[in-house]
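Lab notebook, bench 4. We co-purified these components, and the gel suggests they stay together. Before we commit to crystallization screens, I want a quick structural picture of the whole thing.
Request: model the full complex, all chains together.
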Amino acid sequence: MAGYNKVNIIAQATPLIILGTFLIYPVIRVTVLGLLSETGMPFAESIAYNWSYIEFTILQAVLSTILALIIGLPGAILLARLKFSGKNLVRALIIIPFVLPPIVVVVGFLQMFGQYGIVDSALMWILQSSDSVLNLATDIPGIILAHTFYNAPLVILLVSASMERINPEIEEAADLLGADAKQRFRRITLPHIMPSLIASAILTFLFCFMSFPIVLAFGHGSYRTIEVQIWNAFRWADYGQASSLVIVQILFTLTLALTYVRLGRNEGERSSPTSSIKTTTLRSYKSSEIFLIILYFILMLFLVAGPIASIIRAAFFDPISKMYTLDGFLYLFNTDAGGGFRPLVNSLFYSGLATLLSVGLGIPLAYAHRSKTQILPSLASMMVLLPLGVSSITIAYGLMTAIAVPTGLNINPWPIIVLAQTIIGLPFTTRSIEISLRSIDSHLIDQSDSLGASSLQRLFFVELPLLAPGILVGAVFAFAMAIGEMSATLFIALPQNFTLAVAIYDNLGVRKFVEAGASALILVIVCVMAFLAMDKVSEGSVGGAL
Amino acid sequence: MVIIGVAEYPVRRNPQILIGAAVTIVIIIVAWYGVVTWWKPRFVIYTYSSFMEWGDDGAEVVLERAFASFEEKYGIDIDFVILEGDANFIVSRLNAEAANPIADVVIGIDNILILQETARNVLEPYTSSNLGQINETLVNLLDPDHYLTPFDYGLVTLIYSMNTINTTTHPQLANLTFADLASTELSSALVTEDPHLSSPGLSFLLSQIAVYDKILHEDWTAWWNTVKNDVDVEEGWTEAWSAWSSDPTKHLLVSYGTDPAYSAHYLGTAPDTAIAPFYYNGDHWAWMQVEGMGLVKNGPNPQLGKAFIDYCLNASVQQEIALNQWMFPVRSDLTLPSVFQYAIHPDEISLLNTLLNSTEIASNLQNWLMQYDTVMTPG
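Here is the predicted assembly.
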């Protein structure tokens, strides 16, 4: 038994060693060397110079979070409270934005809300104007709307899940005691969902704080977040400034991430999965309320479904010639140097490998979380959280200088890209596996032991099948994160390593809109298909991973 | 009874075979990809994305034609690695790789970038034996310390498409000043490039600073303050060119004085692109950009790198520059194509470079860029 434990600990420590080598060491190295290098600005000067960008980073994240909460909260209440057929379908569809790559969302937003986009064209027609009337897919409105697109669904999922567990007896008691709807909401519902509201606010803030492709595309270089400034500083070879910003960013994000995890732990202990909220049908509402509900539904269709659907138009409609064309798809089959075939193959290959690696690392990491040793669980959760709080650009630059350059891999850097994509998706993969690991009945394991299964047999035929839904969810998140990853890949890749996500950014830059649109459509199809496959197997337990 | 028992509880085989098969398949796929993309040690040149890309044949054909005899003589394959973005990114990449460089030569660092410490840190000075074939003023304008050897040069200036605006509709284009350009009508039609990331963008910023600081003796940031909400600043030259050529509201572009020649070449007639150099004190002014080649410090093949730089000054390479790179070759003994009569030549114009000496640029560049950022940051 002692020998088995040793094997176990080694298996759980291996991913920690791998992460130490490919994440901790490169990031610390690049940060420390940057501060010591004396090329570029020293710390204090960097902070002073970047002060307005730091402020903007916080401001846009706060605004995005507020808007996501305002838009998400009614949806969460409706999803928990309302009884309707197809509820599971809606719950599944709501997760789709989360698996879509940011640069794809940019394409959808440009087409839906941008200049001569669908909304603009409609307004031009109504006002009989020949000029563009409204362009929301640019500057601050573009950044905040796109962030809301991502995060309102997140709020809906997290808050509705918590609200569904309200014990109906408490509400009935309040009814009997004469509380009206407003009082019930303030005294019962709100306190109950508060932890999940705070958790989703922190997560939303964190994502917006770190957001890169959306700010880069809609900010046009004038609106810059810390992440964009880190990217710029590395491109200007101003290592002092880059390192200073990395430290500021890590301080912010780690504080938030730790708060989030602490909240999650408390939530997990208190919830009682048995009770479920009293649901009502649409008919029991007043007609004015029904009107509001329908209005809300239309707003969500507009904001969330609109950009996704308009990617289809973006793949065929060229806004420059104002004509429908198949050039975008010809581009995808073009095997020449500047064609889209190579990025397509690269995308599938890199993200496929990154998915395998993520699962391979995620399973032992999830086990390490419950290890009985002193140090493994906290070490594992710290390692897994780190990619959430460290900029992808920093990870990419660290991997370049610490791993690629000494090994000469920088001339053919695809393994580095796979590593970066794996690391960036790992928090989500590990968390979904960990969640399903928690729900395994330990008696089953004991039984297989007493029936004489070898440890390998036990792992593969008892534990892994029980874990399968969690692993699959984790795999799809890993895949979606990897195939949509743009920042680190853009930084590391030479033209022959371009992925579709990078090619989209590149094509948008030179205004090859249909080429970008067709590539985005392919990514949407791939991500949605992966998601549907996962949803079928995991039976709708996907949201918990967030 | 035993038979039924087996059917109900099928004996699971040991999973080793299954794992083995899966691992083998993955290894085969990865190995196949690795072999297909395997990088054989070659001779690496770093350059930027539009290098030799704008001719009739495309970069691949041109580079093959120009360098075939070099490859044959030394028995090597030249790998032109195109780094996404403009020259600044090449410098930062070389810095990142300084511990173990893979490139031997870099093409595209210009007479402003080389003034930065970070660029000099990664290059090795080299005086080419073919330098005698180049006009000495070019060598001195680029880099008297020979960290760089001139490859080509051109004038950075404003261009416009005559189909949309011209000197009849806008007479000020003939003798353009920055004050003219600050009008909402012209500034919202202007596309330029980010001076942090793009060499023509930086040339334009320095042009503007030279005019305001040395000719007008005014605060240069005031002009940017006036235009900051209207002017379109794109990431690099390629992006700016696309915006200018496809957006019907954009008429003016910060580009090169050779663009009318490019336009004439493709139209087969007189050009429809014209240039609008700045006009002050009775002279037309433009910024001269000299693009250089540098030997990478501690590169793997220094002798080959030097031979390559020498070779780039041969006629076989230099004669490709005019019609593929749309710059002037640094060798003055070559006959330029006839369409270059439409290009503006350096001897027809006053150089803004003469107003800002290199010491002044070197000591102020970072400050200027920071001031530019302060002005251009919204809010």
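Chain A touches chain B through 47 residues (CB under 8 Å). Worth comparing against the SEC data before the next meeting. Confidence is low (pLDDT under 50) at residues 542-546 of chain A.
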